[in-house]
């Protein structure tokens, strides 16, 4: 089996070296690994750092201008040659050491789609939800996940998770259109509409603050995600 790890990046010069090293170190028995980095029009030294690392199994694709995370992921999917695909953010929030744990569910035959959930728990006021902004982010995610569960008929605790592991073959009958963070509700809705069951596996994360470069904005991106859920569940 072959796994494609897609890393969409935009101005991640502070973390790109480390995330590529961590992903490169991931080993999964009986699984070949392919890493595709899609630079989405970075204006800092991200591309230069990727080229300097020069890892053999890293395929770098460059967007000449910034198109959005969803567009970068779609570009990665178009070039993926793996049987399975997983998305890896470049900001060190998600730990690549969790990837084998997700793949284990596939290799055991338990499921075909695995999500790494961060939210099958109460708010952690001392760490993840240490600020009011992050607390709102937590409840916003839980609300969107609950709405996904109601609309699609399967319980989901973390629809917005970045760790989505799915077979490339699942996309044969799915047309992805999202260019931004609304990629998350779109692919979730369409996988469920096409009969795939999502198995959630708990993962640990290290959320970065907005002062550290976090790009997701709870209210604006949450509103878009809300519209996307209804749009792709009821219309497309």
CATH topology: Spore Coat Polysaccharide Biosynthesis Protein SpsA, Chain A
Query: Secondary-structure element sequence?
Result: EHEHEHEHEHEHEH
- Residue-averaged pLDDT: 88
Q: Characterize the overall form.
A: globular
Strand-residue proportion: 15-25%
Tell me the major beta sheet.
7 strands, mixed
Helix segment count? Answer: 7
Would you state the CATH class? Alpha Beta
How far from one another are the termini? Answer: 32 Å
- The number of strands is 7
Structural class: alpha/beta
Q: How would you characterize the overall build of this protein?
A:
With 236 residues, this protein is α/β, with parallel strands linked by helices. It has one domain (2-234): Alpha-Beta Complex (Spore Coat Polysaccharide Biosynthesis Protein SpsA, Chain A), CATH 3.90.550.10. Helix content is 37%, strand content 17%. The protein contains seven helices and seven strands; from the N terminus they run E-H-E-H-E-H-E-H-E-H-E-H-E-H. It has helices at residues 16-25, 46-53, 69-79, 99-107, 132-152, 183-193, 218-234, and strands spanning 2-9, 32-40, 58-63, 84-87, 113-117, 164-167, 198-202. The chain has a seven-stranded mixed β-sheet, with helices on both faces. Helix 1 links the parallel strand 1 (2-9) and strand 2. Helix 6 packs parallel to helix 7. The protein is globular. The two termini are 32 Å apart. The model has no long low-confidence stretch (mean pLDDT 88).
């Amino acid at each position: 089996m072959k796994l494609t790890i897609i890393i969409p990046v935009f101005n991640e010069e502070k973390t790109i070296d480390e995330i590529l090293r961590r992903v490169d170190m991931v080993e999964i028995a009986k699984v070949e690994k392919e890493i595709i980095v899609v630079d989405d029009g970075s204006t800092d030294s991200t591309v230069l750092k990727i080229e300097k690392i020069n890892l053999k199994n890293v395929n770098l694709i460059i967007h000449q201008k910034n198109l959005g995370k969803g567009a970068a992921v779609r570009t990665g999917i178009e070039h993926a040659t793996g049987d399975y695909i997983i998305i890896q953010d470049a900001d060190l929030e998600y730990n690549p050491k969790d990837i084998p744990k997700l793949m284990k569910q596939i290799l055991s035959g338990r499921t075909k789609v695995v999500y790494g959930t961060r939210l099958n728990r109460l708010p952690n006021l001392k760490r993840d939800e240490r600020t009011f902004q992050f607390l709102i982010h937590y409840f916003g995610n839980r609300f969107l996940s609950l709405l996904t569960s109601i609309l699609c008929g399967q319980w989901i605790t973390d629809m917005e998770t970045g760790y989505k592991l799915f077979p490339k073959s699942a996309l044969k009958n799915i047309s992805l259109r999202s260019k931004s963070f609304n990629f998350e509700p779109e692919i979730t809705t369409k996988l469920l509409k096409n009969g795939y069951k999502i198995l959630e596996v708990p993962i640990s994360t290290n959320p970065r603050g907005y002062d550290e470069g976090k790009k997701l904005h709870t209210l604006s991106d949450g509103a878009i995600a809300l519209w996307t859920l209804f749009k792709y569940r009821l219309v497309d």
